[in-house]
Fold this protein.
Amino acid sequence: MRLIRTSSEFVAATEAARNDGATVGLVPTMGALHSGHRSLVERAAGECGFVAVTIFVNPLQFDDPADLEAYPRDLEADLALLGDAGADVVFAPEVNEIYPDFPYISGTTVHIEGLTSMLEGRFRPGHFDGVATVVTKLFSLAGRCRAYFGEKDFQQVSVVRRLVRDLWLPVDVVACPTVREMSGLAVSSRNVRLSESERTVAAVMHRALVAAATAISSGVDRPEKVREIMLGVLATAEAVEPEYAEVVDPEDLTTPERLSGEVRLLVAARVGPVRLIDNLGALVGSTFGRDLQIFDASDATPSGTTHAPVTPTTVNEIARKSPVSATRSKER
Ligand code: AMP
């Protein structure tokens, strides 16, 4: 595995891989890697002959300077994880390589109308312009590729798909299921900033999603009722301050008056010093639309009280998506 620092070397590496006949799999990350990122890299390695992972804490997508400052960074540990997960190159540029005039942002930025103003966009103004801008730059450098994103950031996947569609970018976007701790808490780089008790409490977000998904599968189709269920569960944890709890159409992220077919439940809340987001799919009147859920015991709580297999286990009604540990492709 090769560590690359410059854009020109990154372009050369991905071009060379394509010239050798490999499909390029791209996994954009902000580092502080965990089993969720690992699942993306393993999936890419199973489907592509060449895997490029990018590590870049993108200042443009942080609306809160304190959050940017506190964002965890550990390149050495990241490289160890990526070597093991099957990455071929890691592109970890300095900020000036991506934004030459930083801290001034001059030149072109990317804005996507509509999808970026709701949900996260309401609470994090400018966040998705930052995401769309950096993702466009990374796609330009990587060239034709399959790009792997986590459903953990469901709205981000929608935004990236829209970007690719609107700008005819030569990229296949692959959405991968959320990896969770055994408690149900979605694995996140920000979880390291939670105290042991906050981490335990934060699992209430997953319980709220599951309660709402269960109600939806038994036929509840009024968004107000679904919101009430989620907020009711969140209210059981005093240390959790909800920002939103919504149920939306997974295609355009709007809330219909009556729910039907596939829907997406999304929550955001502050737990101690950290803002967390999570989401889950559901199907009205049926348990079949429930997401594949992946629980990974290797991201145990600090108390180390988890016990199950280290390999992610799938638990749930119906596996709609391929499991996390895809086998390596023949392309390699
Ligand atoms: P980040 O480093 O937080 O920007 O995340 C990089 C990629 O990893 C994004 O596509 C995320 O959606 C994805 N990701 C983060 N956490 C998880 C998780 N728990 N399960 C699956 N994918 C994840």
Notes: DSSP finds eleven helices and twelve strands in the chain. Confidence is low (pLDDT under 50) at residues 300-330. The two ends are 14 Å apart (CA to CA).
